[in-house]
Backbone:
């Protein structure tokens, strides 16, 4: 008995001396990444956006909209009626199965192979450069280089939102996330705009530090005015900027910077919330996942280019996880979920992250 | 002649007439099916029953007849043809179908945008559901969970909850979404549409493209569009039907030849009346003609396939016949001859085995469950023809209750839908003005020269007192437009007699405006419409500069119908146009009538100003922001 006690004491003193052994948080998902490029069917390696539609995968590339179905890629382009070859954003109307594609030359609706395109010349669309699109009920919300638009698919009415009727200082809208209750616009240089569907009123969230690249008080408000992407899920706003990211629950803000979180870079192209606590961050230095406590980063090592996965726990301890694959490129532009799997749009290919048990 | 001789002749004539009448009644007995309805005054086409569609109850004991202009469903005894009941439904019903159990009869009411739900056990309307824009046909799925409604104006198919009628979603369908049929196993719904889909516009006669339509295939279980079957060069697709084994699908359609001048009437008709065949029996879908030289099947509409798949029956509204196709011969022809067949006027002789004369403007058709009788709804003489399918003869004609006399207005309507005036009976007014509206097609008409003055077809609604007519304003009134001009350049055959032309004119002048889907009640406007109305009526531009009178929207498009009936050069002349002066078109229901401008070069209202008004000749608009242009268009949609 005395011998056992002495051994336990020795073990405890070792822990005190050397710190806790690395323990991978159970919720951190691991993936085996398989990538698609022009070498195996993609029309272009520059993939701006990705959308999961059941077993079908849509990829918005710089040279057409690609559809992966039954292990074969098919590409839709301007000859098929697509508004422009560069497809920047994608959204699925889950009720009808229609896919909406924001392009550099207008908005396209893909409905069972038929493509209708809306441009600033042939429709009420405010501008042909469509950075973001989101479907809510019968409305399609669009983020363009000249403000936001709402297209009612039942009445065919376009409603434009810009500096004339919203608190939008700049009209360069980069992303939109719409729900039955609220609609959020990510506005380049003009913060985050909120539209209340019930009251038809707009509200605006700005960086309390203005356009300065400083943060005087942590979690005081939106992290930066240059908002690149927004995701509204479970009543929580996840906002991405080129200078860090923010989470807003309607009362309090929580900001994420590389210096105080597991974010691999403050330069975030795209953000997608899983629920109120979990989100994915697409940065210029890899893909990051936050589970509300810990962070995981998936990328090619910035040192030697080898695939790596790192996990940062609640205490700020960062530990590597052995992996054999990573997303096609560290410049990540989009993500979508397929059950436990993820699909990742990058500057040099589309990657399928196959969940590993 | 002595008085006695005169009396003998009169008696003989009387006996002869009586004998002939008896013989005629024996050959094709007319059965009167007078429903218990109040007597309607004559003089309006709305007084007439106008049977449009027909179907049998699940047990085959009752016949349901959709009577469009009397806003009713007539229920007849299937054996005696006696009227059982007339059920009042909504305004201008167009389509109906039974629920999977047969306990409900769904009826689409086009002009009040509702769906009537009739309990077939009590023959009463038990619910009226608000639905989409001009609902035209309806189907319930096999599970009884969803009801699909084809909306003609909004070009979609609404998916409703079958218990509550609440709309779950709207599926993008073809333009003028109108008719649907389920596959025999109920897993899919096949939908057609009457106007060709809008395509990217290409200006210039050399760049014109043929109309394109589709059969929209819906996964009835998931409630989403699964596939779109292209119908190349088709415009005006009506009913579609399946063989009971599900291996053969048939759609009735028009195949307009609008890319070549109408001078070709004598050399091969302006429209081809065709069927599209698809399914496992066919392989890749094919289009086959029903026409034969001097025996045209103008405006095929209703389709039915016999239970044993030996025959296809097609009602031809303009030719007033039912065309009978032998399926074995048809399949043999297709499999033994290389296509395409659609230009071949000798092809149909290989498979069309009968053309049965029926009443005026036959539309919906239905076979008895055993396939021994075909019932045909003759819309414009208020009868139902009963055809013995073994002999291909009309064995009975059921007269529905309604005015006994044909009013001048009704006569005009009959003329409008009759193809017999054209050379060899090829087509009629209703070919281009489907259901008295338009066809969404641009035509190359001969009098202006081949390849010259391509013109977009204009809507007929509420055109009275908007003369002159034609895009160049060349016809001073409707009698000129519809009389000498139509006879010379379209019919190329017989002229209307003066009374017929007068009645036709009367009918055309009576065609009302369909309810405007964008207009609020009590002449109210949405804020966007109100802002647009202000722009429409403005006299100065945004910079305060006065807008010359002739360059104001409200100057040319004045009044309730939106035309000052004068011609102007609005800067839209193309290289193929002979002149620049164009008649100011009325704005009635302009939201429905894309494409726009005289030659259809503007695919949308927006393009009129964003593409074709560079010099502000078509109104001062280049000072407007995008928001303001959108507002102007929102207002125009209310016209």
Residues:
């Amino acid at each position: 008995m005395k011998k056992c006690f002495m051994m336990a004491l020795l073990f405890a003193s070792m822990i005190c001396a050397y710190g806790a052994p690395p323990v991978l948080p159970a919720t951190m998902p691991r993936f085996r990444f398989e990538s698609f490029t022009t070498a195996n069917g993609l029309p272009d390696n520059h993939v701006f956006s990705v959308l999961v539609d059941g077993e079908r995968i849509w990829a918005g590339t710089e040279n057409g909209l690609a559809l992966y179905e039954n292990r074969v890629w098919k590409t839709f382009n301007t000859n098929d009626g697509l508004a422009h070859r560069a497809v920047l954003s994608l959204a699925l109307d889950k009720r009808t199965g229609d896919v909406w594609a924001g392009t550099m030359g207008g908005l396209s609706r893909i409905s069972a192979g038929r493509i209708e395109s809306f441009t600033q010349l042939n429709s009420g669309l405010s501008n042909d450069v469509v950075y973001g699109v989101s479907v809510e009920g019968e409305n399609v919300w669009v983020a363009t280089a000249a403000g936001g638009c709402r297209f009612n698919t039942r009445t065919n009415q376009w409603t434009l939102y810009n500096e004339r009727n919203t608190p939008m200082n700049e009209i360069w809208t980069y992303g939109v996330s719409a729900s039955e209750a609220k609609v959020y616009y990510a506005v380049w240089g003009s913060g985050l705009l909120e539209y209340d569907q019930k009251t038809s009123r707009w509200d605006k969230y700005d960086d309390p530090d203005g356009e300065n690249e400083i943060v005087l008080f942590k979690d005081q408000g939106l992290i930066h005015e240059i908002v690149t992407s927004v995701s509204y899920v479970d009543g929580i706003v996840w906002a991405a900027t080129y200078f860090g990211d923010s989470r807003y629950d309607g009362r309090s803000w929580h900001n994420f910077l590389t210096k105080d979180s597991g974010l691999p870079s403050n330069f975030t192209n795209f953000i997608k919330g899983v629920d109120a606590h979990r989100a994915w961050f697409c940065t210029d230095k890899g893909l990051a996942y936050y589970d509300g406590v810990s962070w995981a980063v998936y990328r090619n090592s910035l040192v030697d280019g080898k695939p790596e996965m790192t996990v940062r726990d609640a205490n700020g301890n960062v530990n590597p996880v052995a992996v054999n694959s990573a997303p096609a490129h560290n410049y990540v532009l989009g993500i979508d979920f397929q059950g436990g799997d993820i699909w990742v749009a990058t500057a040099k290919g589309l990657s399928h992250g196959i969940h590993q048990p | 002649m002595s008085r006695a001789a005169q009396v003998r002749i009169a008696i003989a004539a009387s006996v002869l007439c009586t004998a002939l009448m008896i013989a005629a009644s024996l050959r094709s007995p007319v059965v009167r099916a007078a429903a218990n309805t109040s007597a309607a005054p004559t003089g309006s086409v709305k007084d007439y029953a106008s049977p449009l569609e027909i179907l049998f109850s699940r047990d085959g004991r009752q016949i349901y007849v959709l009577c469009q202009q009397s806003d009713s469903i007539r229920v007849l005894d299937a054996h005696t043809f006696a009227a059982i009941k007339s059920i009042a439904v909504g305004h201008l019903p167009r389509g109906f179908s039974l629920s999977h159990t047969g306990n409900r009869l769904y009826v689409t009411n086009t002009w009040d945008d509702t769906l009537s739900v009739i309990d077939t056990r009590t023959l009463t309307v038990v619910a009226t559901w608000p639905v989409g824009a001009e609902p035209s046909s309806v189907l319930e799925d096999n599970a009884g969970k969803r009801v699909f409604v084809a909306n003609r104006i909004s070009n979609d198919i609404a998916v409703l909850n079958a218990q509550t009628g609440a709309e779950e979603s709207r599926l993008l369908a073809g333009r003028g979404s109108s008719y649907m049929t389920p596959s025999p196993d109920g897993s899919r719904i096949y939908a057609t549409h009457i106007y060709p889909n809008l395509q990217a516009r290409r200006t210039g006669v050399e760049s014109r493209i043929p109309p394109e339509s589709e059969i929209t295939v819906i996964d009835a279980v998931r409630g989403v569009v699964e596939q779109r079957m292209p119908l190349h060069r088709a415009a005006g697709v009506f009913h579609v039907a399946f063989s009971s084994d599900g291996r053969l699908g048939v759609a009735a359609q028009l195949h307009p030849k609008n890319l070549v001048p109408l001078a070709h009437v004598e050399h091969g008709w302006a429209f081809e009346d065709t069927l599209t065949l698809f399914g496992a029996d066919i392989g890749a879908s094919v289009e086959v003609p029903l026409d034969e030289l001097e025996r045209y099947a103008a405006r095929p509409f209703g389709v039915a396939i016999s239970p044993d798949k030996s025959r296809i029956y097609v009602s031809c509204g303009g030719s007033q016949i039912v065309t009978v196709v032998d399926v074995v011969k048809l399949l043999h022809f297709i499999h033994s001859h290389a296509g395409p067949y659609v230009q071949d006027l000798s092809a149909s002789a290989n498979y069309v085995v009968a053309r049965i004369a029926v009443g005026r403007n036959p539309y919906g058709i239905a076979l008895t469950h055993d396939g021994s009788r075909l019932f045909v709804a003759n819309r414009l003489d208020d009868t139902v023809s009963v055809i013995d399918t073994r002999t291909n003869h009309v064995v009975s004609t059921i007269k529905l209750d309604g005015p006994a006399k044909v009013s001048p207005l009704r006569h005009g309507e009959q003329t409008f839908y009759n193809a017999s005036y054209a050379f060899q009976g090829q087509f009629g007014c209703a070919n281009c003005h489907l259901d008295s509206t338009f066809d969404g097609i641009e035509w190359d008409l001969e009098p202006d020269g081949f390849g010259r003055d391509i013109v977009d077809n204009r809507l007929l609604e509420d055109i009275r007192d908007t003369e002159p007519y034609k895009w160049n304003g060349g016809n001073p009134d409707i009698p000129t437009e519809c009389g000498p001009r139509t006879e010379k350049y379209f019919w190329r055959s017989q002229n209307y007699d003066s009374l017929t032309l007068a009645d036709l004119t009367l009918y055309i002048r009576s065609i009302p405006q369909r309810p405007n889907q964008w207009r609020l009640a009590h002449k109210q406007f949405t804020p966007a419409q109100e802002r647009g109305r202000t722009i429409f009526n403005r006299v100065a531009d945004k910079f305060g500069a006065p807008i010359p009178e002739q360059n104001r929207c409200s100057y040319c498009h004045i009044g309730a119908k939106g035309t000052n009936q004068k011609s102007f050069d609005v800067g839209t002349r193309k290289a193929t146009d002979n002149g620049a002066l164009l008649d100011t078109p009325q704005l009635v229901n302009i939201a429905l009538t894309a494409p726009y401008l005289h030659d259809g070069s503007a695919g949308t209202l927006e393009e009129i100003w964003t593409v074709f008004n560079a010099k502000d000749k078509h109104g001062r608009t280049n000072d407007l922001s995008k928001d303001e242009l959108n507002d102007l268009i929102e207002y125009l949609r209310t016209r």
About this structure: Chain A has a mean pLDDT of 92. Residues 36-42+92-356 of chain A form a domain with the Methylamine Dehydrogenase; Chain H fold (CATH 2.130.10.10). DSSP finds one helix and 30 strands in chain A.
